Amino acid sequence: MPPSLKLSDFDFDLPEKLIAQKPAKLRDRSRLMILDRKTGAIGHAVFSDLPHHLPAPSLMVFNDTKVIPAKLLGHLVNSGRAVEILLLRENNDDHWEALVKGLGKLKEGTEIKFGGEPLKATLTARQDDRAILKLTCPGNLKQVLNRVATTPLPPYIHRSTAAEENLTELDRKRYQTVFAKHAGAIAAPTAGLHFTPKLLESLDREGINCAFLTLHVGVGTFQPIRSEDIREHNMEAEPFHVPAETLKELVRARKRGQDIIAVGSTSTRVLESMNLDAVMEGDISGWTDRFIYPGQELKAVDRLLTNFHLPKSTLYLLVCAFAGKDLIERAYREAIGHNYRFFSYGDAMLIL
């Protein structure tokens, strides 16, 4: 196996204090590292300065998925034991695919209640490590879930008790992009969290066109790589949708020789799952399990805006593939030395 494809070669030490536990006070005041692939230069800026560091004219592509309230804390009706549920996606007839802690101990037909709420979940089937739950309640289910369920934060963001109720409300607002439109994700496309309406207007004034696609971020994006040979890892497929207008913008940018700038790894994976040189008409919908790691050539994305990622993660491997492992390692060392904030609520990197 080539050394560059060993998972252990993509590890690094990250001080726990650099894992951001809450968002920056203002979205666009997070820090921005600027990484030049041609020269290897590393610069430092504030995110609100982003438009001044982008080539114009160019096309910036965002993921407009919307995070659903998907975390439920309930109790088993027959025993009162506490149970934690993460809703993954709705199947049909109010049946949901979900992760349930302690699923192996539960029998089909088990009922789960949620405090004094009218919501009830019934385990109707298992699919490998997933539960199929039937959710029932009087009235509108989506409205009840919006009230009962909470934002499904990554496990490295810690929220303990009702003492942090103010943070829970903050998460509902800030763990969501300002352009979120299509509900279905269980995690935010975090590179997009830094944008404000004012900044989007600034991009337009500077000659940066904005286009939107949708990838509903699921567990596939965050599944840990368990094999030392990274080529053995299989991404779980996630659904995406690219509207016809975005396709036209992409083809137009390509024909005019303009740069395509992907906002985040999710936009990158969708763009790299398509052939922009093929003639396309209408919308495109599908599922992508595209896993991008060093040695692969990215054909659609010219520039990348992203956050700082976990060691040995598929996201870290993607940025190493885009910018080169040595340069990313140097950039991450500098980020740690300069106390950049890491992961979902952290700072950003623009790779030119």
As laid out across the biggest beta sheet, the strand order is: 2-1-17-16-14-3-12-13-15
Order of helices and strands: EEEEEEEEEEHHEHEEHEHEEHHE
What percent of the residues sit in helical stretches (DSSP H or I)? 10-25%
Mean pLDDT: 94
Taking all Cα atoms into account, the compactness measure Rg is 21 Å
Shape descriptor: globular
The assigned CATH architecture of the largest domain is 3-Layer(aba) Sandwich
Structural class: alpha/beta
Keywords:
352 residues; alpha/beta; QueA-like; Thrombin, subunit H; 2 domains; nine-stranded mixed β-sheet; six-stranded antiparallel beta barrel; 7 helices; globular
Any overview of this molecule?
A nine-stranded mixed sheet has the order 2-1-17-16-14-3-12-13-15, with helices on both faces. It has a six-stranded antiparallel barrel with strand order 5-6-7-10-9-8. The chain has a two-stranded parallel sheet with strand order 4-11. The two termini are 30 Å apart. The chain is 20% helix and 27% strand. It has 352 residues and is an alpha/beta fold. The chain has two domains: 3-67 and 174-351, 3-Layer(aba) Sandwich (QueA-like), CATH 3.40.1780; 71-149, QueA-like (Thrombin, subunit H, Beta Barrel). The mean pLDDT is 94. It is globular, with a radius of gyration of 21 Å.
